[in-house]
Amino acid sequence: MTNLAWRKFQAACFLFLVISCGRTFAASAAAHPEMLVSTEWLAGHLNDPKLVILQVGHDDSDYRKEHITGARFLGSHDYTTGNDGGLITELPPVQKLQQLFQDAGVSDDTRVIIYTADWYPVAGRAYFTLDYLGHSNAALLDGSLAKWKAESRPVTAQVPRPPKGSFTPHVNESVRALLAAAKAASGGDSQTILVDSRPQKRYTDGHLPGADHIFWEETVQSSKQPVFLQPDDLRKLFESRGITSGKKVITYCEIGLQASHMYFVSKYLGYDVAMFDGSFYQWNDLEHLPVVKGSAPR
Question: Fewest Cβ atoms nearer than 10 Å: which of 143, 173, 182, 231?
């Protein structure tokens, strides 16, 4: 081989390695990395005037004791409906949600970071709600308050008094799946995948026909340490359960909280996803539709 031919061969090998590494990196990265921020990132942006930090939870007792500096509190009952004879957990009217987030200081140009000291899916539900309202600049804090405190980062009991925000909703109905869409997916729609986000026992006791299963806790280190798995590990988890890319994903759970977390993960990875707000409660308890028992989808 001549020197010129050898140099061409080396160049071709180098180009192949660059392309291969690029593909590997792209495959292992999240499709929407902006949806998740680290504690380190947040610590460096606490004084950003365009940043709103929201602690969400069942009540404000933990928040009153300690929270991340500048964080405002939102009760989960404020961004979901109660049981008024219909669904247990459902999106409230848009006008109410607009007022709620504006009162917390959220504006159209605000970067919103959400965390919780409560059950982790309530954070995913808050993210889903903002996504439904068309606010495209929200993220979850990876590891939530548990990781923040484990790193000895500062907390406070001082409650901020934020100025009211100016938020214009642009409702995106496509992120919320209604009963008809769940029925179509359950009936064998080959372009849609149902994902049950509940614990294995609840899935085995009865699930929507055709539904695959990923318990939401499988996507984080643990329920007490809600640090997300790496994107490539999340993809492997999805693929191991038959949840492949290129199809619509509809997540559901008991009443729409665990499913909101799985909505977040699915979108983070780049899936076209919606959350069945009525979930198993509407399907089974209200509509009395058929369910499948056991560990197989059908």
Answer: 173
